[in-house]
Specification:
This protein is an alpha+beta fold. The chain has seven helices and 28 strands. The longest helix is centred in the middle third of the chain and has 31 residues.
Length: 518
């Protein structure tokens, strides 16, 4: 009150009512407000040393219904928006549009800007307090807020319509500049069902920047959102939505979260790419296939990065999915033997039993994966596995960005980080993969190794392979070749080659070649 930093109404700080009870609303347009807010965060963190903050009610929310002032062109404008999806008044559960901010700016004009400035002030305050990369989740957003906060798509409903709507919602926000965005798994409002929660679980994965914490509460479609959580309205009589409520959902979650853990280095690298270039983590298919005009209208499938495609079930009592595949060879990430050869883009009908979601990797991509564990901290200690999806024409490529998860600037000058790029190729009966390392000291300090390389996409039949010749060109002197084993399998048009028992430091450049003898 002394600093006079609250939003005013009729000449006095406006008092509303939210979860804590009576509240005043900080005015983040006031230049003194960020200092006040930073001190409040400091006081709070001395009580509870949190790593991140959730700005849940920063539209701002106000539970009492304010009487509508019919003659006010701000409270009752000459046009009406479809507020809350039900044509409710503009002041529905929020502060009056005629309330005043600093310098007599009306709430009508500053509604979204105030939330945006709170996002920025919270990020800055956490950085100042922790000297680490912050995590802030915000309901209210505006253009540019993606630099400061993650976002979720709000109070969705536990319906099949809303599981479908979640995909274009997240894709749109990615284009708006929000790389870390997701929807409440199983729905927030209303009672979910076992089937809906199971399918939703198959989609939801989260990118976690704090490596000390376990990844909890993520479920199947949801297993692939950049930001994901299981969240529901427990202030009503809504039934619980947690994964363990149903054995079938828990079993499915273990399957898809197992893949998610293995893919965490890939998601984290995509976070780095989003930070550097602005390209989203979760992308429309047309991002990678702009020449294929059929992809322009697809909003029921999506890409993670440039070549991993997710094709979820979005309807009840459905055990197949009609998925569109652009031209190329595609490999099932749950079973590499299930490959698809698509010469021209087309729709294909895929089996989708209740415990399965279709996830495919396109030729030309290399994934650097790690193992499963109970926490992301422990998962980061496991060896790397390279999956090389060989390309019919030219190189396959991929990369992995590595740091401590806490430095303020991802990939900043002089920082402790490494970037490892991979290149793979098939020439006749020979496959090869090599690495190029930038700023490798950090990776070497962590002693991370690659202990397995898998090639998919080499044409041929495994039962016709008589032998192989393996050549390790780099690194010299630090590989016991007697420990290496090679498995060649595959019952389709492609051979799967697994090379196990290698021990390449990921911070060292290497080259591996193998010739298949038929």
């Amino acid at each position: 009150m002394k600093d006079d930093i609250f939003i005013k109404y009729d000449g006095a700080p406006y008092q509303g009512d939210v979860w804590p009870g009576p509240v005043y609303y900080p005015d983040f347009l006031n230049p003194l407000c960020p200092t006040f807010w930073a001190n409040e965060i400091k006081i709070f963190r001395h009580l509870i040393p949190v790593d991140g903050l959730w700005l849940d009610m920063n539209e701002f929310s106000n539970f009492p219904q304010i009487p509508l002032i019919s003659f006010s062109r701000l409270e009752n404008p000459p046009y009406h928006i479809n507020n809350s999806g039900m044509n409710t008044p503009l002041n529905q559960k929020t502060i009056p549009a005629s309330a005043l901010h600093f310098n007599n700016i009306t709430e009508y004009n500053a509604h979204n800007l105030n939330g945006f400035l709170q996002c920025k002030a919270t990020n800055v305050a956490l950085v100042k307090e922790t000297r680490k990369r912050p995590f802030v989740l915000s309901r209210s957003t505006f253009v540019g807020a993606g630099k400061h906060v993650a976002h979720w798509t709000g109070d969705n409903a536990a319906t099949w319509n809303d599981i479908g709507y979640s995909i274009p919602s997240i894709l749109n926000f990615g284009i708006f500049g929000f790389s870390m965005v997701g929807s409440d798994i199983c729905g927030f409002i209303g009672n979910t069902t076992e089937e809906l929660c199971r399918r939703w679980t198959q989609r939801e994965f989260a990118v976690i920047t704090c490596i000390e914490q376990p990844v909890l509460g993520y479920q199947k479609l949801g297993a692939f959102y950049p930001y994901a959580r299981n969240h529901f309205d427990n202030n009503t009589n809504t039934i619980p939505h947690e994964l363990y409520v149903w054995d079938s959902v828990a079993s499915t979650a273990r399957k898809v979260l197992g893949l998610r853990y293995r893919l965490l280095p890939y998601y984290y690298t995509l976070s780095y790419e989003a930070h550097k270039t602005g390209i989203p983590i979760m992308r429309p298919i047309f991002f990678s296939f702009p020449q294929d005009t059929t992809t322009y209208k697809i909003d029921s499938q999506f890409l993670i990065g440039r070549g991993m495609m997710v094709s979820p079930v979005l309807q009840s009592e459905t055990f197949y999915v009609d998925a569109y595949f652009p031209a190329g060879n595609w490999f099932d990430l749950f079973n590499y033997s299930n490959s698809l050869m698509v010469h021209r883009g087309k729709y294909l009908t895929l089996d989708a039993p209740p415990d399965h979601i279709n996830v495919h990797l396109r030729e030309g991509n290399i994934l650097a994966m790690q193992g499963e564990a109970m926490t992301t901290k422990e998962a980061r200690k496991t060896p790397f596995h390279l999956l090389v999806a060989l390309c019919r024409h030219g190189d396959s490529t991929g990369e992995v960005f590595l740091d401590d998860g806490e430095e303020l600037e991802m990939g900043g000058d002089g920082g402790m980080w490494s970037l490892v790029k991979f290149y793979g190729r098939v020439v006749g009966d020979k496959v090869m993969v090599r690495s190029q390392v930038l700023n490798g000291e950090f990776a070497l300090s962590q002693k991370w190794i690659i202990d397995k390389v898998t090639f998919v996409g080499m044409k041929g039949r495994a039962d016709r392979v008589k032998g192989y010749e393996l050549i390790i060109i780099k690194p010299e002197g630090n590989q016991n070749e007697d420990s290496i084993t090679v498995n060649i399998s595959g019952n389709g048009p492609f051979v799967i080659i697994e090379i196990l028992g290698i021990s390449f430091l990921i911070g060292d450049e290497f080259k591996l070649e193998m010739t298949v003898i038929k």
